[in-house]
Write a structure and sequence with these properties.
3-stranded antiparallel β-sheet, globular, 21% helix, 4 helices, single chain
Length: 164
């Protein structure tokens, strides 16, 4: 009997049902599961919209990458988020991150890496709210040759991270 040869992408392209991810007024709606594509530089990723539960209005986006390439470890991290300007200041990004923690646990991601520019004070504040620790600030050269100071935050996944 011939054995099927497995590629690396077969091992990392594992997706779980995230279940219902919501709190009293915020719900994460899964819009897409993106499989790894090494040729394009894609890693496995869940993409969600942040929606208000009462109106179903989309107020932002959040994604979870389950695997990191060296470039993503340098710039992007596991979680990326964006809240529409008129909805900022309500901790929707922090709450969304916490809603993802059980999915993170299923993927055995520990620690979680989140990066942001040093000037992005709201994102830095979000990291602190969810229990992330600033582990480093590095100057990084972008694809365009620009030098940016990037904050690197880690969240160690422990039992208390999963409850609200």
């Amino acid at each position: 009997m011939l054995k099927k040869k497995h590629k690396m992408t077969d091992k990392i392209n594992i997706f779980y049902d995230p279940g219902k991810l919501c709190d009293k007024e915020l719900e994460l709606v899964l819009t897409r599961k993106v499989p790894a594509d090494p040729v394009k530089g894609y890693v496995p990723e869940y993409k969600f919209e942040m929606c208000l539960t009462d109106s179903r209005k989309t107020i932002g986006k959040i994604n979870l990458r389950t695997y990191l390439t060296p470039i993503l470890a340098k710039f992007g991290g596991h979680i990326g988020y964006e809240v529409e300007p008129e909805y900022r200041g309500n901790r929707y990004a922090a709450r969304s991150c916490k809603l993802l923690f059980n999915l993170v646990k299923k993927h055995k991601i520990n620690p979680i890496l989140i990066t942001c520019n040093t000037e992005n004070i709201p994102s830095r504040h979000t990291c602190e709210i969810i229990g992330a620790k600033l582990i480093d600030v590095k100057e990084v050269k972008t694809d365009t040759g620009e030098i940016r100071a990037i904050c690197f935050y880690h969240i160690e996944m422990k039992a208390q991270n999963y409850s609200f």
